[in-house]
Amino acid sequence: MFSRHDQAWLNGAGWAAALAGAAPAHAQALEQWRAHDWPLIITRRTPDALPDALCLGLALPPDAGGKLRIAVQVNQNTVARVENALPLHAAAAAAPARWAGPLAALLADAGRITLRAYGSLALQAVTGLTYLTESSDIDLLFKPASVHELDAGMRLLQTHAAHLPLDGEIVFPDGAAVAWKEWRDAAAGTRVLVKDAGSVRLISTDSLRELLA
């Protein structure tokens, strides 16, 4: 099953299809990704996507105050492999010096809680290109397996957000993702904005907690 923020590597046919469907202005970036065998990132399905299509994204480093994001659709059969978002401990090596100590403390306190990185920190770690700026956040994915782990993970994130610009999502077992800051601020029983592979909707916090063992 494909999940948002997963990394996807294309085979030759996949790259050929991506380039054939690309706008001329995007061809150079796609060629660069193909030459380095860098992954594209799985995104939410668009309404026009065919049943066997996989929706992917490529975000370029900041330029003139913004990022160019390129949307790509390929047949799922042209994906060579898929991996989860980069583990935070692997992405941390690309972090600026000001984050080094606080990130080490976060990873030490995490224990068995697995945190994964996406967004600018992960892209900088994977490509070696400069994505991080002074205003960058650290986008994290946290996938709790139980209510106990959910609560422990929230305590972890809240504690270390005092020293790091933490952002990102909690991902529940059915793929429903909620911004962890929205979850933090939501009262019991209220509804929160949920994103998954194909939709955006509102779901109650109680319903999401019931998905956990």
TrEMBL record:
Keyword Nucleotidyltransferase: yes
Residue stretches making up the Phosphoribosyl-dephospho-CoA transferase MdcG C-terminal domain: 88-204
Keywords assigned by UniProt, alphabetized: Nucleotidyltransferase, Transferase
A matching Pfam family: MdcG
Domain Phosphoribosyl-dephospho-CoA transferase MdcG N-terminal, chain residue ranges per copy: 4-83
InterPro entries assigned: Holo-ACP_synthase, MdcG_C, MdcG_N
NCBIfam families reported for this sequence: malonate_mdcG
Protein name (Swiss-Prot/TrEMBL): Malonate decarboxylase holo-[acyl-carrier-protein] synthase
Species annotation: Massilia violaceinigra
Gene name of this polypeptide: mdcG
